[in-house]
Amino acid sequence: MAGIELLSDQGYRLDGRKATELRKVQARLGVFAQADGSAYLEQGNTKVLAVVYGPHEMRGSRSRTLHDRAVINCQYSMATFSTAERKRRPHGDRKSTEMSLHLKQTFEAAVMTQLFPRSQIDIYVKILQSDGGNYSVCVNAATLAVIDAGIPMRDYVCACTVGFVDETPLADLCYAEESGGVSSLALALLPRGGQIALVQMDARLHQDHLEALIEAATTACKGVSKVLDEVVRQHLQEASVLTGED
Amino acid sequence: MSPMKLCVPGESLCSEGDCNPGAGVYLRHGYIYSSLAGFVLKTTEGEKLPVISVVRETEAQLLPDVGAIVTCKVTSTNPRFAKVHILYVGSTPLKDRFRGTIRKEDVRATEKDKVEIYKSFRTGDIVLAKVISLGDIQSNYLLTTAENELGVVVAHSEAGAQMIPISWCEMQCPLTHAKEFRKVARVQPEYLEA
C-alpha cells in the first residue's frame, strides 16, 4: 500500500480520528439575502457554499420543461483557489459535469417536484476549500440551502464518503486518505427511512466487503443528519426570536 | 398561547386518522410527515378533523394555478394575442415574473371574433385575469379576461396620465379628455379605496 500509514495499530488515522469518527461539521443557513435559499457548510477543512433559486419559470431551453414536475438544475464548481495547485478550469470539465449530474439525481429523489409543474429549481454549489469528500459535503450543504429556501422535501439528504483500509471501513475521508489509494464509496441517504438516494464508487473493492462498507456509510450519514438537524432547529429558533413569535 | 412546535423535513407529525393534511406536509404509509422546516399549525373547523400544516415566516414561492386570479402587466401586443408578465397571484407578489398569454378569443365572453386586441389592451396596462391553462411545453400560461370583473384596471393614456374608466369598453384621460378603448374590469366596490 502507500508509504503513509492511513490507520495506525492503535486505530488512529492521519488526523487523529478513529475509524468511525466524522470530521467537525459547522454550518450556517441564510448566508445570502438575495438568493431564495443559501447555506455555508464546513466539514473538517472542506468548505462549501450552496445557493438555491426557485421554483421559478423555466429559463433557457423551454423544451426541457416537464409538464408534471419541476426540473432541478444543479451546477457544481470549484473555486480556483480551492485545491493545493491553482485549478485551471473551475467548471465545465468532465468531473464537474459528472458531479452536477449526481447532485441532480440525488435531489430529484428528495425534493417534492410534483408540487411545481413546469418550473425550475436551481442549486449551485461552490467548493471554497477542497479537502476530500467533495460530493458528500456538497450534498449536505445543498440540503441546508433547499431547506432555507422553503422548498418541500421528503427528508434531509445526508451524504458521506467512506473508504476501506486494512479490513476496516473509514468514515468521512479527507484528501490525504482519498488520494492514498483507498477504495472510496460515496453514499447519499434519506436518514429517517434509510432510503439510499445515490451510491457512487469508482475504485475496486471485493464483493465481501461491500455490505460492511455500506453499513458504515449509513451510520455515518445518520450521524451527519443529527448535526444538520441541530443546525436547522437552532436557525429556526433564532429566526422566530427575531420575528417575535412564540 | 402555547409555543408552536418546531419541525424539520421528514419529521413524523401524526397519523392519518388524527388530522387532515394541509400545506407543507405529505402523507406516507398512513402517517403525516412534514416537508418544510417551520412551525406546526393545527386548525380546527367545527365538526371536521383538524387540519395540520407547517408554516414558515417567509412564504415560499407561489405558482399560478388553474382558476387563480392573477394581476399582470402587458408587455407586447399582436393582432392575435397579448403577452403579459404575471406579477401577483391573488394578493401575493411573485419574486420572479412568469409569462402569460391572453388570446384574442379569451378577451371577451361575447362577440369573440370581433375583438381587436389594440382596442382591448395596450403595452404597460395592468390587467386582472384568470388562469385557464398551464399551457404545454411550447407556450406560457394561458389567461382569460372574459368576465365582468376581469380586464384592465390601470392604464395610462398617450399623454401619460392615468385614465379613468367610463364604461366596460372605454377609458378617459383626465388631462386631454380623449377617450381610449380598453376592456375595462368592473372592480367590486369593496376593493376600491376612497
Automatic annotation (TrEMBL), chain A:
Localization (cell): Cytoplasm; Nucleus, Nucleolus; Nucleus, Nucleoplasm
GO cellular component, one term: nucleolus
Superkingdom: Eukaryota
Pfam families per UniProt: RNase_PH, RNase_PH_C
GO BP field: nuclear mRNA surveillance; poly(A)-dependent snoRNA 3'-end processing; rRNA catabolic process; rRNA processing; U4 snRNA 3'-end processing
Domain Exoribonuclease phosphorolytic: 21-152, 155-219
InterPro entries recorded: ExoRNase_PH_dom1, ExoRNase_PH_dom2, ExoRNase_PH_dom2_sf, PNPase/RNase_PH_dom_sf, Ribosomal_Su5_D2-typ_SF, RNase_PH
Family, similarity comment: Belongs to the RNase PH family.
Complex and partners: Component of the RNA exosome core complex (Exo-9), composed of EXOSC1, EXOSC2, EXOSC3, EXOSC4, EXOSC5, EXOSC6, EXOSC7, EXOSC8 and EXOSC9; within the complex interacts with EXOSC2, EXOSC7 and EXOSC9. The catalytically inactive RNA exosome core complex (Exo-9) associates with the catalytic subunit EXOSC10/RRP6. Exo-9 may associate with DIS3 to form the nucleolar exosome complex, or DIS3L to form the cytoplasmic exosome complex.
Protein name per UniProt: Exosome complex component RRP41
Source organism (scientific name): Nothobranchius furzeri
Lineage of source species: Eukaryota, Metazoa, Chordata, Craniata, Vertebrata
TrEMBL record, chain B:
A GO CC annotation given for this chain: nuclear exosome (RNase complex)
Residue ranges annotated for the Exosome complex component CSL4 C-terminal domain, each copy included: 94-134
InterPro entries associated with the record: Csl4 (IPR039771), EXOSC1_C (IPR019495), Exosome_cplx_N_dom (IPR025721), NA-bd_OB-fold (IPR012340)
Top-rank taxon, per record: Eukaryota
UniProt-listed Pfam families: ECR1_N, EXOSC1
Gene Ontology molecular function terms on file: RNA binding
All residue ranges annotated as the Exosome complex component N-terminal domain in the record: 6-41
Keywords, comma-separated and alphabetical: Cytoplasm, Exosome, Nucleus, Phosphoprotein, RNA-binding, rRNA processing
GO BP term, example: rRNA processing
Location(s) in or outside the cell: Cytoplasm; Nucleus, Nucleolus
Family: Belongs to the CSL4 family.
Quaternary data: Component of the RNA exosome core complex (Exo-9), composed of EXOSC1, EXOSC2, EXOSC3, EXOSC4, EXOSC5, EXOSC6, EXOSC7, EXOSC8 and EXOSC9; within the complex interacts with EXOSC6. The catalytically inactive RNA exosome core complex (Exo-9) associates with the catalytic subunit EXOSC10/RRP6. Exo-9 may associate with DIS3 to form the nucleolar exosome complex, or DIS3L to form the cytoplasmic exosome complex. Exo-9 is formed by a hexameric base ring consisting of the heterodimers EXOSC4-EXOSC9, EXOSC5-EXOSC8 and EXOSC6-EXOSC7, and a cap ring consisting of EXOSC1, EXOSC2 and EXOSC3.
Protein name per Swiss-Prot or TrEMBL: Exosome complex component CSL4
Lineage, opening ranks: Eukaryota, Metazoa, Chordata, Craniata, Vertebrata
Name of the gene encoding the protein in the UniProt record: EXOSC1
